[in-house]
Amino acid sequence: MPIQFENVSHVYSAGTPYQYQALKGINLKIAEGKMTAVIGETGSGKSTLVQHLNALLLPDEGKIRILDRVIVAGEKPKKLKSLRGKVGLVFQFPEYQLFEETVIKDVAFGPKNFGVSEQEAVLKAKQALHLVGLGEEFFEKSPLELSGGQKRRVAIAGILAMDPKVLVLDEPTAGLDPAGTKMMMRLFERLNKEMHKTVLIVTHDMEQVFAYCDDVVIVADGKIRMHGPAKKFFEDSRLCKEMNILPPALIRTRDALNQNGFEIPSDIADIHALAKEIRKQVKRHG
Amino acid sequence: MGNFTLGRYMPLDSPIHKMDPRMKIIAMLLMLISIFINAGWIGYGIIFVVMSCVIMTAKLSFRFIWKAMKPMLFMLCFLLVINALVVTTGVPLFTIGSFTLYSGAVMQTLYIAVRLLLMIMITTCLTATTKPMDMTLGIEDLLGPLKKIGVPAHEIAMLISIALRFIPDLIDETQRIMKAQQSRGVDMQEGTIKEKVGAILSLIVPLFVSAFQRAEDLANAMEARGYAPGEPRTRYRTLKFHARDYILLGGSLCILVTMIGVSILL
């Protein structure tokens, strides 16, 4: 288990009128090498939860195991830096963190902080930029003169260059155009499937969860409401309704077809397979 | 940053919170003047007791005041050092080599420390019990008469309210950027001086970029809603004095008179 939460609670501004309990006794296990979606309404505690993963926030109660580290509430952990190198956290709208004069310098900033030599950091930066689809013509540009989508990619490359074992992304595709979103999701899928990184992704897009993620964690009111395989969850229309979640379009279409006399099996994975199945069944019935 | 309490509004329900911001500002000014009347330890004792009562009425905790005082401790230490080197009045307390510490230096520093504590108590009583919006309304009204001699009272009030409104946003933004950079291995606490400069740079540059962006967005949003400085404007909230406001005024005037009395008698 690379990540395990045991009864973790977190309170903001404890002891003031602004006091707010964001996490209420979280128990959660994330298996290695999985791609997990964290979903839930705004203010449910998703962002607070993910910030515990690299110890930016510390638990007020409970215990967290992350890779080979154990963080216990009340104890002041030391040398958090090494943990932050292994768990890469990409914030919401990460383009705000860019500050260097050139793209390549900004991306190399992360690995350099973790004690990698200048040369090697630049090499890693180049690889990371290549991964996010930014070519050499961008290396010497100022990050401030790029477009919003390009800035986002530079910021994500800045984390990828650290080569973390666990990658945590807080709404990485918010505000990107459809092509940029697809490219990003494909990249995360590749990092998960080919480079065997454990990926956690906070998202509001059920289509993404359905298409790319193995597991799904639902957070509501600071608690874990559900944790299980994504496909199975979306199949259970009653559970989806209970969680107030609209299943992806493919599943809704299939259910609507089945209610109207079709017999579409549940293993249909994408829109092309669905179209073929419809044609087959239409033909059979003349 | 979450521990930063100086000037922060505390949403509580107390008689002090309900008072008119204009009168609270006037009362604060009167109390501040009282501090600077040299009424000795007796005078400070009276103000301290009165302000403690006000703080308790406002349901604020003394820990809150202490936290606001903390950032000043460094300044006080600095002052003590300067005073120790300069002041040579009073009885010599002890001598190390060619340096002698006089009781005057300690007294002088203690005096300033007490004044500072009282000032923080008074200003905190205003800022912690008055919503920033009410505060600006109060300032605008109090500056109102100066409009006749060309003081742009409304613009000043708007500037202050915008500045106040952005403080929590900028604190949030700073924390957000700090966290983002910490995730990239920036160590704000440890490291060599060169690393620390780099850490600060990685914080300042994005902060400036986003602050300018915010300012531009706000200016556009204000213009889009037809805001033009200097034009006559109506107000949703109008301020009105109540009995409790006159009690506050009377009370603070009493303190001021008492201080003047004590300073003459001594």
Short description:
With 286 residues, chain A is α/β, with parallel strands linked by helices.
Task: Walk me through this protein's architecture.
Chain A has 286 residues and is of the alpha/beta class. Chain A has a domain at 248-286. Chain A has helices at 46-51, 80-86, 103-113, 118-131, 148-160, 178-193, 206-212, 230-235, 237-242, 249-259, 271-284; strands at residues 3-12, 20-30, 35-39, 61-66, 69-72, 87-90, 166-170, 198-202, 215-220, 223-229. In chain A, helix 3 (103-113) packs across helix 4 and helix 4 crosses helix 5 (148-160). Chain B is mainly alpha-helical and 266 residues long. Chain B has helices at 15-18, 21-35, 40-57, 62-86, 103-127, 132-143, 153-183, 193-224, 243-265; strands at residues 92-96, 99-102. In chain B, helix 2 (21-35) packs antiparallel against helix 5 and helix 3 (40-57) packs antiparallel against helix 9 (243-265). The mean pLDDT of chain B is 86. The A-B interface holds A 12-13, 16-17, 51, 54, 56, 81, 84-85, 88-91, 94, 96-99, 109-110, 113-114, 144, 158-159, 162 and B 2, 10-12, 173, 176-177, 179-187, 201-202, 205-206, 209-210.
- Count of helical regions of chain A: 11
- SSE order of chain A: EEEHEEHEHHHEHEHEEHHHH
Largest interface: A-B, 27 and 22 residues
What Rg of chain A, in angstroms, do the CA atoms define?
21 Å
Overall pLDDT of chain B, averaged?
A: 86
Q: How would you write the strand order of the largest sheet of chain A? A: 6-7-8-3-9-10
Q: Largest beta sheet of chain B: what is the strand line-up?
A: 1-2
